[in-house]
Amino acid sequence: MILAPSLTAPAAVPAALRGQGYAVVAPQAVCDLAGCRLDGLLALNPSWDGLPPDNYLKDGGHYRRRRHSCFVVTGDEVAQVAHRAHWQPVEYNALHGGMQRWFEPVEPAVVGAPAWRQMLHGLAQLASGLKGAQPWYVEAHQFRIDTEGGIGRPTPEGAHRDGVDLVAVFLVGREGIKGGETRVFEAAGPAGQRFTLVEPWSLLLLDDERVIHESTPIQPVAEGGHRDTLVVTLRAGGFQGG
Length: 242
Fold this sequence. Notes:
Layout: H1 13-19, E1 22-25, H2 27-34, H3 38-42, E2 64-74, E3 77-80, H4 108-111, H5 114-131, E4 136-146, E5 166-175, E6 177-179, E7 182-186, E8 192-195, E9 202-207, E10 211-215, E11 218-220, E12 226-235
Antiparallel strand pairs: 1-9, 2-3, 2-4, 4-12, 5-9, 5-12, 6-11, 7-8, 7-10
Helix pairs in contact: 2-5
């Protein structure tokens, strides 16, 4: 059984993040927040078909493909920075923390798309409303988790924080799979929620200081089963790892 999330209206997102530490937003509401069109976001979907393999998986798996690029959003300006490694401390990622992981960058056609820039700008505006206006150091990760080996793990590190201020997890698409349930827990308490994102460009927003999150493994129900996501993190003060 697939559990649907409780959706938050755009105007109520800041209060939800302050109150419970997370919010789930429907695709059209994402566009209302970001000032973009849904067809503009959907036009980005084919780029997930060309993601290169993630060669850093320490569990020996070959189920993850990804690209990664970094940006700084200051006011209305969205600037891509020189390509850099993705780094997390072991405190936040016990499996892959402490590693300089170099992934291929997000393709220029994606970075240059108006909907992409509007989406990053909208997330930064939301973060500034919650934490105060400032430059936001943004990392964007395109992920495809496939089931060619029988099972794929969206979060092989388990339930975790990312060491940032705001996390945005977009469900870009899912085909021929079961599983992939999202779970969000209080970082300092017992409460938790579980649900499954199914609509393309639906969004889970997380106050990373308040909650931890994970997604359950996926299994195939048809050939070529996979789950595509875009994870965008926003951090004040600089990128992790300097």
